[in-house]
Amino acid sequence: xxxxxxxxxxxxxxxxxxxxxxxxxxxxxxxxxxxxxxxxxxxxxxxxxxxxxxxxxxxxxxxxxxxxxxxxxxxxxxxxxxxxxxxxxxxxxxxxxxxxxxxxxxxxxxxxxxxxxxxxxxxxxxxxxxxxxxxxxxxxxxxxxxxxxxxxx
Length: 153
What we know:
This protein has 153 residues and is an alpha+beta fold.
């Protein structure tokens, strides 16, 4: 799959909170690198879908504010908007923007990396398009073509 349809499906899934259609877009061993200190990495479809679902915590909403499509990466500018007015003058409770790069290999999302700002995310996506990363090895019990079948000739 090319990057443009991946961008459209990411935007739709995050906007509608329906993340299951993303599962076939994720490599079985997709790796999400933690954005900030203390945020753990996660690996595999189930963990990545759980992290995306966590963006939709009660008491707020997610808005895909910007998308950028590169040949081997998609950048989403995601706004996390809490319900109600800002809580105080320190900015707690105000909208937060995340810039996340979804790296593609062979039409599948193989790596996800969060960035603190737009410029860093765009630079990472551009660099990935110039120097693509290899796909992770297939998960145990699978081949590039699909699941292992025992007794097949």
